[in-house]
Amino acid sequence: MATTSKKKKKSPPPIDENFLGRMEGALMALRAEIVDNLIASNEDFKEIMDGTEPKDIADIASDDIDRKMLEAIGTQELKRLKSIEAALTRIKQDKYGHCIKCGKRIPQDRLIAIPYALMCIECKSEEEKRNR
Question: Is residue 118 within 8 Å of 102, Cβ to Cβ?
């Protein structure tokens, strides 16, 4: 009689508390930096919008380009801010540092480089290949 054994996914050991504390601090610093940048961008955007004096075509085109660049920067920063908030939530839920696809531990070097990383390098590479 053959026995079937189901392999249980071993969960990686918990992340070192010191490292976790450093990452939480790094995430909070990134969050503060992004919020400051968004506030500054918003002030720049207000200046562009408030400058309603008559302008020639070149000034109008220049203002339009500035406005579009600020909007693009704001959109990117908002995405990063959401990722950072999600990472801070994962820390509170003891899920930080684990790949959301395969469950393996994300290497510390990757987390230092991208503190809000969701996936290990292998899973992220696979996803990028599929999205090309």
Answer: no
